[in-house]
Automatic annotation (TrEMBL):
<dbReference type="Pfam" id="PF05899">
    <property type="entry name" value="Cupin_3"/>
</dbReference>
<dbReference type="InterPro" id="IPR014710">
    <property type="entry name" value="RmlC-like_jellyroll"/>
</dbReference>
<feature type="compositionally biased region" description="Basic and acidic residues">
    <location>
        <begin position="7"/>
        <end position="21"/>
    </location>
</feature>
<dbReference type="InterPro" id="IPR008579">
    <property type="entry name" value="UGlyAH_Cupin_dom"/>
</dbReference>
<dbReference type="InterPro" id="IPR011051">
    <property type="entry name" value="RmlC_Cupin_sf"/>
</dbReference>
<protein>
    <submittedName>
        <fullName>Cupin</fullName>
    </submittedName>
</protein>
<feature type="region of interest" description="Disordered">
    <location>
        <begin position="1"/>
        <end position="21"/>
    </location>
</feature>
<feature type="domain" description="(S)-ureidoglycine aminohydrolase cupin">
    <location>
        <begin position="36"/>
        <end position="108"/>
    </location>
</feature>
């Protein structure tokens, strides 16, 4: 873990691949506070600017919104509107879209699948 004094780690800035970006800019910042379980478990804070992207989860993720609003839509077209205070799990295998409507900041816990033996 990279830290600066007693402060949070430096944020990792990100942008989606062009083929995944559907709308907006969708710039992200991630502050990973913990890595464990043989580099399969990640915990921290993530934020994004407004935009819409295609998502395809191979990992399991728990999210808790600190601020903002987003719409998560699965391949079948079912949508969930998420906002400050909401907590939810995105299961491995989920495919669809993530649309940040109002700048999102969330806690996350990600568990990657075990490597094939």
């Amino acid at each position: 873990m990279k830290t600066k004094g007693k402060h949070a780690p430096e944020p990792e800035k990100g942008k989606p691949d062009k083929e995944k970006l559907l709308k907006g800019k969708y710039n992200t910042r991630t502050w990973n506070h913990f890595t464990g379980e043989d580099d399969r478990l990640y915990c921290g804070i993530w934020e994004s600017t407004p935009g819409k992207v295609k998502v395809d989860y191979s990992e399991w993720e728990f999210c808790h919104f600190i601020e903002g609003k987003a719409i998560l839509t699965n391949e079948e077209g079912k949508s969930w509107t998420l906002k400050k205070g909401d907590a939810f799990i995105i299961p491995a295998g989920f495919k669809g879209t993530w649309e940040t409507v109002k700048k999102v900041k969330k806690h996350y816990v990600i568990l990657l699948p075990k490597p094939a033996a």
